[in-house]
Design goal:
The complex is a heterodimer. By secondary structure, chain A is an alpha/beta fold. Helix content of chain A is 41%, strand content 15%. Chain A is built from five helices and five strands; from the N terminus they run βαβαβαβαβα. In chain A, α1 links the parallel β1 and β2. Chain B has 18 helices and 24 strands. In chain B, the strands form six sheets. In chain B, strands 2-1-3-6-7 form a five-stranded parallel beta sheet, sandwiched between helices. In chain B, strands 9-8-12-11-10 form a five-stranded antiparallel beta sheet. In chain B, a hairpin with a 2-residue loop joins β16 and β17. The radius of gyration of chain B is 66 Å and the shape is rod-shaped. Classes of the chains: A alpha/beta, B alpha+beta. At the A-B interface, α1 and α5 of A face α13 and α14 of B.
Chain lengths: 151, 658
């Protein structure tokens, strides 16, 4: 089940999750599926936005995180707002953002796709299923999907 | 013949009389005497009288010596008096008397008699003679006087006879009038006793006249004038109008009462008054007055209710058109006037709703209606009604206001409901997100615990971890079930004609995984097309059939049947199994939320599935119920009547169980 990054470049996976326990579970699941990747956790949307804006290296596509796993229900700034902001900015638009959330609300699903989400995953309650779903997502975006090559 | 000589004498005397300046009266005497000497003697006495008494009458004598000559003279001569000697050669003087009595003139007769025959003379008097005279005893004056008196007496007697005859005729006439009168006529004496009663009195009193006479009725209180009295008869009482008058009656004062039976008239009048009163009352209750307007005579008539509606008092003079117009609201006078004119011209019937302003300023709303008034087939005006519809109008207005208020409240409630719906949305969001996360976390960490500390855990530690995992799974099902239930509540029905058989087949194939290793016999009958929401009906069949699969687990083979059946609630769909069933005393709890009839370790479940079924069926305005017996299976019936149109019901009825 565990798969490594397909390239030698630094493989950074960003998790945006405000609940500590939930964040820990997510990190464990991602770690198991991609032991070699660099996992960065943000506890709210502002932290992510600040991180991407502060780090000049991220202005080039090659330095972008390989994947952002974004929960929608966040403190302070709602996930959809974070998503919209990133997808509007030219320099962050190409970052793959997968919404991982418990909500099946039509408004959330529709809103996420409208804002430019690359994928929408509903978290299964069963931990095994959850772990399997995250592993699939990570595997796809890090090993199957071809990112923009460095200039 | 002495006749001529006497006549000459008479003529001479008559001449003397003429000289005296007046016509001398001449009395013609029939002298019936067979003795010539006696004849001469009488004639001489009469001449002597005429000579001596110039102012007296003259006499002319017709001699008759026999009865037959006397009879002949009686018939042929103009005569004034008869001097009769009863003894005649050819007959009896009495025969002449009776012959004379038979003539219309009935001449006065004086009997000439001798002293011996005085008795006979007296007898002649009773036979109609006026007087008698002894022959030889009379002088001229006596004879003339007797003759004159006899003539005078006879005239008086005849006059009396005539009067009596006339009186009798008059009496007959009056009696006939009284008898033929339709009014009963009574004469009451001073004691009030009936002295006379006419024919009409008999039916009025219900007694023959013979019984009425002598009865004491008592005198009327007003002895004169008119009064109304009551007569009580065996067949009921009669109302009688009585006129009383005082009249002389057989030497006394009596009371003449004429009685007219006016019962029928009075009753008719009372009936008329009663129906008039009823009409008035009806008009007052209905607030409906009627009017009649003769344009030709200008006369306008209003019923009492019209006055009440217009707020006017009934005066002594008749109402006028102008008075009516004055009551009409000023803004509507012109339209009322033109409507009445149109109606009078026969162009259209008068039918108009308008306002009335009473003197005290209050307004009424009335509806007027009228049509042409005809008199002897020619139109003379209008006749119609005026209906006070104020209360109705006010009620209508109140209803309108109520409706408006109701609409407003509905809007308000709808707004409140949509707020509540919004709150529900956030609740569901919260359930789906906030409850799921901790569940996953519990399950996740328990799993991680087992994975990483596996070796350090003993069997019971691993058992506890399994319990945690199972509890998490079950709570996950509960959360999903609740979410599902609430989604169905908010899900708008998308009803369309749906073939049920493919739905059932699809559900059965989805359940195949659950029946692996078991023998399940599916019996799917002919199923109709139904008007329903296909997604929701899929859910119904899924929940029911998965229940059947679950509760037939101990059965080999399991038999699960789907079909339609006639029930007391009409044609219904049913799902029948030969599973464990349940006790019908719990039947009312079957569809309750979280209600479970079996232990979790025997038959797992959340107690939500049948609640969802009931919710969906109710959304289709159908009904769902179950019949079961412990150990002998369960049958769940449901209908989708409310959402099904007639055509579908037909199809439903047309297909029996196969």
């Amino acid at each position: 089940m565990a798969t490594g990054c397909s390239s030698t470049r630094a493989c950074e996976i960003v998790i945006v999750e405000d609940g500590a326990a939930e964040a820990e579970l997510a990190m464990l699941a991602v770690r198991q599926s991609c032991p070699g990747c660099n996992i960065v956790l943000f506890r709210d949307g502002d932290e992510l936005l600040n991180y991407l804006a502060r780090n000049p290296g991220h202005s080039s596509a090659a330095q972008h995180p390989r994947l952002v796993l974004l929960d929608l229900k966040l403190v302070r700034v709602h996930g959809l707002h974070v998503l919209g902001t990133l997808k509007r900015e030219a320099c962050t638009r190409t970052i793959p953002i997968v919404v991982v959330t418990s909500s099946r609300l039509r408004s959330d699903v529709q809103g996420a796709y409208d804002a430019g989400a690359n994928s929408y995953v509903v978290k299964p309650i069963d931990y095994d299923e959850y772990r399997r779903a995250l592993a699939d997502v990570v595997h796809y975006w890090t090993a199957v999907n071809e990112p923009i090559p460095p200039s | 013949m002495g006749n001529a000589a006497i006549s000459g004498e008479v003529a001479e005397n008559a001449g003397v009389a003429r000289r005296g300046g007046g016509e001398r009266r001449c009395i013609r005497v029939l002298l019936v005497e067979d003795n010539p000497a006696d004849c001469r003697f009488v004639e001489e006495m009469l001449l002597e009288y005429a000579r001596a008494q110039i102012a007296g009458p003259a006499f002319e004598v017709v001699r008759a010596g026999t009865l037959s000559r006397a009879m002949a003279a009686l018939n042929s001569e103009r005569l004034d008096v008869i001097l009769l000697d009863l003894g005649l050669p050819d007959g009896d003087g009495f025969d002449l008397l009776s012959a004379n009595a038979a003539t219309p003139r009935r001449l006065p007769v004086v009997i000439l008699t001798s002293r011996q025959d005085q008795a006979l003379a007296e007898h002649a008097l009773s036979a109609g003679a006026q007087d008698y005279l002894f022959k030889g005893r009379a002088d001229s004056n006596v004879l003339a006087r007797v003759i004159k008196y006899a003539i005078e007496r006879q005239r008086l007697v005849q006059e009396l006879d005539t009067n009596i005859c006339q009186l009798a005729a008059s009496e007959t006439r009056f009696r006939a009038m009284v008898e033929s009168s339709a009014d009963a006529i009574l004469v009451l004496d001073e004691h009030g006793a009936v002295q006379f009663a006419n024919a009409a009195a008999e039916p009025l009193f219900g007694k023959p006249r013979s019984e009425l006479l002598g009865l004491v009725f008592g005198l009327p209180q007003t002895e004169t004038g008119t009064a109304e009295i009551q007569i009580v008869r065996q067949d009921g009482s009669r109302i009688v109008e009585m006129h009383a008058a005082k009249i002389p009656w057989e030497g006394h004062t009596a009371c003449l009462a004429s009685l007219r039976d006016i019962s029928d008239r009075v009753h008719a009048l009372e009936a008329l008054k009663h129906s008039q009163a009823l009409l008035d009352r009806a008009q007052a209750i209905a607030h409906l007055g009627c009017w009649e307007w003769n344009v030709r005579t200008g006369q306008l008539r209003w019923s009492d209710e019209v006055y009440r509606i217009l707020g006017l008092e009934r005066g002594t003079s008749s109402p006028t058109y102008e008075q009516f117009l004055g009551c009409v609201h000023p803004d509507e006078r012109a339209s009322v006037q033109s409507a009445l004119e149109e109606a009078l011209a026969g162009r259209r019937p008068y039918r108009l709703e308008h306002r009335i302003v009473r003197r005290d300023g209050t307004e009424r709303i009335v509806h007027g209606e009228g049509e042409i008034l005809f008199e002897r087939d020619s139109p003379v005006g209008l006749v119609g009604v005026v209906h006070d519809i104020t209360e109705r109008k006010l009620a209508e207005r109140a209803v309108q206001e109520l409706n408006a208020a109701l609409e407003k409240r509905v809007e308000q409630r709808t707004a409140e409901l949509s707020i509540a719906n919004g709150e529900m949305e956030s609740f569901i969001y919260s359930v789906s997100h906030d409850l799921r996360a901790p569940l996953r976390q519990i399950g996740g960490f328990a799993r991680l615990l087992v994975e990483q500390a596996g070796e350090r855990l003993d069997d019971s530690g691993r058992h506890y971890a399994d319990r945690i995992k199972e509890a998490v799974r079950h709570m996950g099902l509960l959360v999903d079930g609740l979410l599902n239930l609430s989604r169905i509540g908010r899900h708008p029905l998308a009803v369309r004609a749906t073939a049920l058989r493919p739905v059932v087949v699809e559900v059965i194939s989805a359940l195949e995984a659950d029946t692996t290793g078991r023998t399940v016999e599916w019996r799917v009958g002919e199923l109709p097309d139904a008007q329903c929401d296909p997604i929701l009906i899929h859910q119904v069949f899924f929940n029911l059939l998965s229940n059947s699969v679950k509760f037939t687990r101990p059965c080999d083979p399991a038999i699960i049947e789907v079909g339609t059946a006639g029930t007391s609630r009409g044609r219904a769909l049913f799902i029948r199994d030969n599973g464990v069933g349940f006790d019908m005393k719990y039947a009312d709890k079957l569809f309750g939320l979280f209600q479970r009839f079996h232990r979790q370790e025997d038959f797992e479940g959340t107690g939500i599935g049948l609640s969802i079924v009931q919710r969906i069926v109710q959304k289709h305005r159908g009904r769902v119920w179950a019949e079961a017996e412990p150990g002998r299976g369960c049958t769940v019936f449901f209908t989708l009547d409310g959402s099904a149109d007639a055509g579908t019901r037909e199809a439903f009825h047309g297909n029996g169980m196969q």
